[in-house]
Design goal:
Layout lengths: L5 E4 L7 H15 L8 E4 L6 H9 L3 E3 L12 E4 L6 H9 L3 E4 L3 H15 L3 E5 L5 H7 L6 E3 L2 H5 L9 E5 L5 H14 L3 E4 L4 H16 L2 E5 L5 H13 L3 E4 L15 E6 L5 H14 L3
Parallel strand pairs: 1-12, 2-3, 2-4, 4-5, 6-7, 6-8, 8-9, 10-11, 10-12
Helix pairs in contact: 8-9
């Protein structure tokens, strides 16, 4: 298939600040000569992208799960993933006396600190996000009596008392529109809820850029890991605007047929998708089309 086509990249896409920092931290550990003979582990997925995870495995890190912490030895190097960990896991790691490196994104840590502050001030805690996401599990493990909601319908069933004060925070990758819907509801019915919007700027920028892109092109490829929450959201946003939206983890997922007759192709990528993956996919598209 060969016809004149152009490829347009979203204005903002790919690695965010937090992922970049996590990747650099691991690279620095590998480069430090003092670490050559130490065992090096990453707890869970460093970032939600298989390519990044496998790349560090090839370079010498072993990925371990929380259930495997008991096998760690004193002095082993352990990197905490960008989404953070629960209070319980943090305590277990400290007891093991491992050499801990924290790649938790600063924006995730800030939410945790703010919730701890709010509890001290006597607030009850509400949280908007996905209970099953590691970031949310980590943050919420530090709070007592916390209520977590993923959707407006769930929020409407919340036990919120008019005579108590509440502090509400959000998952960093929450869908902006979903948040605004829930915020509007709370402001209307519960003025006693203080809203601390912590949707990450990088996430918002990528969501907005994807919206603009999806309107502009005939087909959109959202590049990133299927486990990546922010990649999935970019896919949902794009798909709702442009039905010709496809999620690709690597160039192998690209099917020629979907490019048939398309001359304006859009690319966007989640915050944990490395430039190398983006380039490989872009090159494959260019190879198929005359772009
Ligand atoms: Fe951090 Fe935002 Fe990235 S929370 S990991 S900078 S998407």
């Amino acid at each position: 298939m060969s016809h004149k086509a152009i490829i347009i990249r979203a204005n903002k896409m790919g690695f965010c600040f937090g992922v970049m920092k996590a990747v650099r931290l691991c690279e620095n550990i590998l480069q430090n000569p003092n670490n050559v003979n130490k065992k090096k582990y990453i707890l869970g997925m460093l970032v939600h992208n298989d390519f990044v995870v496998q790349d560090f495995q090839k370079k010498g890190f072993v990925t371990i799960e929380e259930s495997e912490i008991s096998s760690l030895k004193k002095g082993d190097i352990v990197v905490i993933r960008a989404h953070g960990i629960t209070k319980e896991i943090q305590q277990k790691l400290e007891e093991k006396e491992v050499e801990l490196y924290d790649a938790t994104c600063i924006f995730v840590s800030q939410i945790k600190w703010k919730i701890l502050w709010a509890m001290e001030q006597g607030y009850d805690i509400l949280f908007l996000g996905d209970k099953e996401h590691p970031e949310v599990k980590g943050i919420t493990s530090y709070a007592e009596n916390i209520q977590v909601f993923a959707e407006l319908e769930e929020l409407k069933r919340a036990k919120i008392q008019k005579d108590r004060k509440y502090f509400l925070s959000t998952q960093t990758t929450l869908h902006q529109k979903k948040f605004l819907e829930m915020k509007k509801y709370l402001e209307e019915f519960y003025p006693n809820v203080y809203i601390f919007n912590k949707i990450c700027g990088a996430t918002q920028e990528r969501q907005r850029a994807t919206e603009i892109l999806a309107k502009e092109v005939e087909i959109v490829f959202v590049l990133g890991g299927r486990k990546s929450s922010n990649t999935k959201k970019l896919y949902e946003i794009s798909k709702s605007i442009n039905p010709n939206t496809y999620l690709l983890e690597s160039e192998e997922d690209l099917e020629e047929a979907c490019l048939q007759g398309k001359s304006k192709i859009g690319l966007t990528a989640g915050a944990s998708t490395p430039e190398e993956i983006i380039r490989n996919i872009e090159n494959k598209i260019r190879g198929i089309l005359d772009a």
